[in-house]
UniProtKB/TrEMBL annotation:
It is found in: Membrane. It comes from the Bacteria. It is a multi-pass membrane protein. SUPFAM superfamilies: P-loop containing nucleoside triphosphate hydrolases. Residues 6-235 form the ABC transporter domain. PANTHER family: ABC TRANSPORTER G FAMILY MEMBER 20 ISOFORM X1, ATP-BINDING CASSETTE, SUB-FAMILY H, MEMBER 1. This is ATP-binding cassette domain-containing protein. It comes from Gracilimonas sediminicola.
Length: 247
């Protein structure tokens, strides 16, 4: 079997006396769409920041694309794409300028970058507004542009932190169609969300409660194990168990 895209063992991050991520252990296979599900403040973003090399763990182990998060954080950044929870593009640049800027950071040769600029602009339907500042675009277009830029360099893994937050249901579906297209290309997708229905779109999901990974499996497996009709119901049962101190 090939090496997993992501491997963690007892990965932990503390801020003073507060434990944001509490001994999580899991693997993500290459090409998988893996969802990190949980309420705001559950530790999803902190875990993702450790896996992307942006935050050093307090303890535990993690390999991302075969690279160690402690010793090879810069090497990890070259092999991944990352779309942050807060909009990560430059509002005072046009769509075209944003793509060119990030393409330069990724080290894409000029000839290839010019081709990719046209590909992204045309695929997103931004041809008529490619010269307009990003701040003037609707949120849905901004999010899809940020995603396209995150995979501009064909990374092994793309990390998406709450990518559909604040957009309408139609745009959310369109965004997930883009995620499926990326997965079909063999790119591993690691996505955090607090939308319970989006869990159904993932190959497997983990559910985080208060920094712990309280459940992991395919949506079907989790619903069967917890005798639930929906992932939302699974989450409610886990949250109630945590409140009673059962987790």
């Amino acid at each position: 079997m090939s090496e997993p895209a992501i491997q963690t063992e007892n990965l932990t991050r503390k801020f003073g006396d507060f434990t944001a991520v509490d001994n999580i252990t899991f693997e993500v296979e290459k090409g998988e769409i893996f969802g990190f599900l949980g309420a705001n403040g559950a530790g999803k973003t902190t875990a993702m920041r450790m896996l992307t090399g942006l935050l050093t763990p307090t303890s535990g182990k993690a390999l991302v694309s075969g690279k160690d998060v402690y010793r090879q954080a810069e090497a990890i950044k070259k092999k991944i794409g990352y779309m942050s929870q807060k909009f990560s593009l430059y509002d005072d640049l046009t769509s075209e300028e944003n793509i060119r800027f990030y393409g330069g950071i990724y080290g894409i040769p000029d000839k290839e970058l010019y081709r990719k600029i046209d590909e992204v602009i045309n695929s997103l339907g931004l041809k008529d507004v490619r010269k307009k500042l990003v701040r003037s675009l609707p949120l849905g277009w901004k999010q899809k542009l940020a995603f396209s830029i995150a995979i501009l360099h064909n990374p092994n893994i793309v990390f998406l932190d709450e990518p559909t937050g604040g957009v309408d249901p139609v745009t959310r579906r369109q965004f997930w169609e883009k995620i499926y297209e990326v997965s079909d290309r063999g790119i591993t997708v690691f996505v955090t969300t607090h939308y319970m229905d989006e869990a159904e779109y993932c190959d497997r999901i983990s559910i985080m409660v208060d920094g712990r990974m309280d459940a992991i499996g395919s949506p079907r497996e989790l619903k069967e194990n917890f005798e639930s009709d929906s992932i939302e119901d699974v989450f409610i049962k886990l949250a109630r168990g945590a409140e009673r101190g059962e987790g």
